[in-house]
Design goal:
The complex is a heterodimer of chains A (525) and B (325). By secondary structure, chain A is of the alpha+beta class. Chain A is built from 16 helices and 20 strands. The radius of gyration of chain B is 24 Å and the shape is globular. The chains are: A alpha+beta (525), B mainly alpha (325).
Chain lengths: 525, 325
């Protein structure tokens, strides 16, 4: 009798405890953040993790569309001032209230963190935050600035009491990691785990998970094994080679979504004698990449369908411009160039290099999905139309320095490169300004223009777009600039990367274009 | 003995200094950490600012002198990536690696010596041949492949052990370690076994060779003729004499286990120094790489010293004296 009673109690408690257990979520991450301080390192993995704890005034949804966060409304009130109305009644994890003072001091701390390897000054530069009343702030600029909302969505808001004067270590150890976000900080052990618990007083949709553990597992096969073994509930960056096998596994569910990252080729537009372009047989040649017809021929010689199907195993979308459809500033007129090797040969002949020439393509081998294999495929395709192409790939730690400033006088070292670009702002001015605009350090333009493409007409369009606050007019200007750049072969787009997450059956991840892995995006089906 | 130790420590200082030179200039030739650290959206002014903040705008010899100045006061520089002192970062990751290396060393000893002894005493038996064949496999199979296979077998198919990561830790005798919890031990088993595999094979072969040679020596024959039980002959007379090469090799191997458990730690997502090192190398976190390698050099010097001292304990014929004087 006694025994059966305690059994009864045991059974009831087990049954009651079960749903609570099911609310624990463990995620295996491919890349690890370097700190819990939201302003320490302006890089993807950090920004993804800090988003759990700290809200932004404006949030980016899964398609990087802007939506209200700690600000409920925002609008430009004159050419130089934007007004943000702050959400009322929001509480920090320690119970203190959120108001305009927090915004002002957060913006002060954001660009000024000691030892920050990549600062948030990129977003705060040239802007002054003024408190108007407890729930209104104005952000002023010296010139009209249409991307204000995008920049604002990148700055986390910390508490003026605990966060603004804290050091990075205080965030890593916990006392300063107090935000208004959907999750509270529990613990951070570098290399091992980050533990979060649900903020039951969250102002927005409450997360389905009471406890979230993020475990960095860098090695791809190990990440997949951890999921198969049930040690984690979800993983990101599923290796493309494993996707087919995992799809057949009925205990798992995959989520895929196109990213904001375009993989493209940059060519030397600048030097008459380009170091890795040679005439047939190895002699000097007047750089043929400067001829539009040659650039068009290269684009036509590339079989994008084959790259997507064979190299990327179907997990990519062929590209015709800088950002996939649906993003702000993309052109409706641009389509991926069709594979046409004969047309390519004709174009080469028309450009006076019908006999072909020799080229070396350089690319990284550990940066983008299957990057080295893509470079090899391109090498073969170009060789087929008479451009004898050597392929050289290297680790990104070596590659990016050489590609950006490895040559004499800090010029790009290579002639023909494979690169990728993710538009962090989620709209077309980001790639236009960094990849297409003339390399002008004083203005901060063309920082990643490794082909040194320069077209004053496009520069003028970008300039105009970046000063146009009206969304519809700016959309047109950006689309127009994109069309001109692509038609002129400024870069040759290959495909948009598609990211894959894998989870246990019953869970689904809402794929994000910014490649971030967020616990709040994991939903039960 | 004291003179011997002091002389060794002085040699160590010189070795560490030369190492710092080689490593510092070596890592500075490769790539540019700025490209690894900075957000691609950053403009040229921002890149310039970061280069200055990291001190990379200065000529390399100035950077080195600055580094040396720091080292004399125990400061190995700050990690580019984490913004924390490199030494602190390494020490933070050290316990996990020590755990792993210790457990795998223990595995190598408790599995390797008995198996090697058996194979040496009964070389003609089928089991012995099996042991020797196994040891060849243990040597020649690549660690990363065996690691993945072990995960597939024990974690995915059988579900006995967790696949990756370090388990719960607890404090015992003032030391926080995952050795004291069941969860911790279950997480430790697979990576430690993976790391131990080569060493088990090594110990088996060394022990077997030692036994085969020693069994024909006069002192063993004499001991047996004296009528000593076989157990005593093996346990005392034989073991004492074959242990010297094993201690040497295991000492050095312990150093390698500590320093270069990179592959195992990456596959099992073990938050130890190896994982820190590989991450730092790939992302060009130069201060951490330099500090790490300097610490490892010190470590090896100390291990060698300990091995030398152990020799003299095990074998009274060995005298600790500097050969050169």
């Amino acid at each position: 009798m006694k025994l059966s009673r305690s059994l009864c109690i045991l059974l009831t408690t087990t049954v009651l405890a079960a749903p609570a257990l099911a609310e624990d979520l463990t995620i295996g991450l491919a890349s690890e953040p370097t700190a819990m301080d939201p302003y320490f390192h302006n890089l993807g993995p950090n920004n993804a993790v800090t988003r759990h704890i700290f809200d932004r005034l404006i949030l980016q949804d899964e398609k990087q569309n802007l939506k209200p966060g700690l600000a409920t409304k925002w609008k430009p009130i004159d050419d130089l001032t934007w007004e943000f109305k702050l959400r009322q009644g929001v509480k920090y994890h320690d119970g203190s209230a959120f108001d305009a003072d927090d915004v002002v001091c957060s913006w002060e701390r954001a660009p000024n963190v000691p030892n920050s390897p990549s600062s948030f000054g990129t977003y705060t530069k040239g802007k002054t935050v003024v408190k108007v009343d407890d729930h209104t702030v104005h952000i002023k600029t010296a010139a009209p600035y249409p991307l204000m909302a995008n920049d604002v969505s990148n700055i986390a808001i910390v508490s003026s009491e605990t966060g603004c004067n804290a050091k990075t270590e205080d965030y890593n150890n916990g006392p300063a990691s107090i935000g208004t976000g959907p999750f509270k900080f529990v613990s951070y052990s570098p290399g091992d785990s980050i533990v979060l618990e649900r903020n039951d007083d969250y102002w927005g949709d409450k997360p389905a998970w009471s406890k979230v553990t993020l475990k960095p597992i860098k090695s791809g096969p190990s990440r997949v094994a951890a999921l198969l073994a049930g040690d984690v509930d979800m993983i990101d960056q599923v290796p493309t080679t494993d996707i087919t096998t995992l799809q057949k596994n009925d205990k798992l569910a995959l989520s895929q979504g196109v990213s904001n990252r375009v993989i493209y080729l940059h060519l030397d537009h600048d030097r008459a004698d380009s170091p890795f372009v040679k005439a047939k047989g190895g002699g000097a040649i007047d750089n043929p990449l400067r001829k539009l017809q040659v650039r068009q021929a290269i684009s036509k010689a590339i079989n994008r369908d084959a790259i997507v199907e064979r190299v990327m195993e179907g997990v990519a979308i062929k590209a015709g411009q800088l950002l996939p459809e649906g993003f702000f500033g993309v052109s409706g007129k641009l389509k991926p160039v069709d594979y046409d090797p004969n047309g390519a040969k004709e174009l080469l002949a028309a450009a006076g290099v019908g006999d072909g020439f020799e080229l070396t393509i350089h690319g990284p081998n550990d940066r983008y999905i299957n990057d080295a294999k893509i470079a090899e495929a391109i090498g073969q395709m170009l060789t087929r139309i008479g451009i004898k192409t050597d392929v050289e790939t290297m680790p990104r730690s070596v590659y990016f320095k050489r590609a950006s400033r490895g040559g004499p006088g800090e010029t790009p070292e290579f002639s023909f490169i494979l690169v990728g670009w993710g538009a962090g702002s989620g709209e077309a001015s980001s790639p236009l300004k960094s990849l297409i605009a003339t390399h002008t350090p004083a203005k901060g333009w063309g920082a990643s223009n490794r082909g040194r493409y320069s077209n004053p007409e496009i520069d003028a369009l970008i300039e105009k777009a970046l000063a146009t606050v009206d969304d519809a007019a700016r959309q047109d200007l950006l689309a127009q600039a994109t069309e001109m750049a692509i038609n002129d072969g400024a870069i040759i787009p290959l495909h948009y990367q598609v990211n894959t997450w894998a989870a246990k059956k019953g869970l689904k991840y809402i794929a994000r274009t910014d490649e971030a892995t967020l616990a709040i995006g994991v939903v039960k089906e | 003995m004291t003179v011997f130790i002091i002389r060794r420590l002085m040699q160590a200082t010189i070795v560490v200094f030369i190492m710092s030179l080689i490593v510092f200039f070596g890592v500075n030739v490769i790539g540019d950490p700025v490209d690894m650290l900075i957000n691609p959206e950053a403009d040229q002014a921002e890149i310039e600012r970061t280069i200055r903040a990291l001190g990379l705008d200065k000529p390399i010899h100035e950077q080195y002198l600055f580094f040396l100045k720091g080292v004399t006061s125990g400061d190995f520089g700050k990690s580019f990536i984490f913004g924390e002192p490199a030494l602190k970062l390494i020490l933070h990751h050290m316990p996990a690696t020590i755990e792993l290396a210790l457990v795998s060393l223990v595995m190598a000893i408790i599995l390797g010596i008995p198996l090697g002894l058996y194979a040496g005493l009964y070389p003609e038996r089928r089991v012995s041949r099996g042991i020797m064949a196994g040891s060849i496999l243990g040597f020649s199979l690549p660690t990363f492949w065996v690691g993945l296979m072990m995960i597939m077998l024990f974690a995915v198919y059988l579900g006995w052990l967790p696949s990756t990561g370090r388990g719960d830790t607890a404090v015992f005798l003032g030391i926080r370690s995952s050795l004291w919890t069941l969860d911790g031990l279950s997480h430790l088993f697979l990576p430690a076994m993976n790391l131990a595999l080569t060493n088990i094979s090594l110990v088996i072969r060394l022990t077997r060779a030692g036994v085969r040679e020693a069994m024909h020596q006069d002192y063993i024959k004499f001991a047996r003729a004296k009528g000593l039980p076989m157990r005593r002959v093996i346990g005392v007379h034989l073991m004492k004499n074959i242990l010297i090469p094993i201690v040497t090799v295991l000492g050095l191997e312990f150093g390698s286990l500590m320093a270069f458990s990179v592959v195992t730690e990456s596959i099992f997502a073990w938050p130890g120094m190896g994982k820190l090192l590989i991450g730092s190398l790939l992302q060009l976190d130069r201060p951490v790489v330099v500090a790490y390698l300097m610490i490892i050099v010190l470590f090896f010097v100390i291990i060698n010293l300990v091995v030398d001292i152990l020799y003299s304990v095990l074998d009274p014929r060995v005298r600790l004296r500097d050969q050169g004087t």
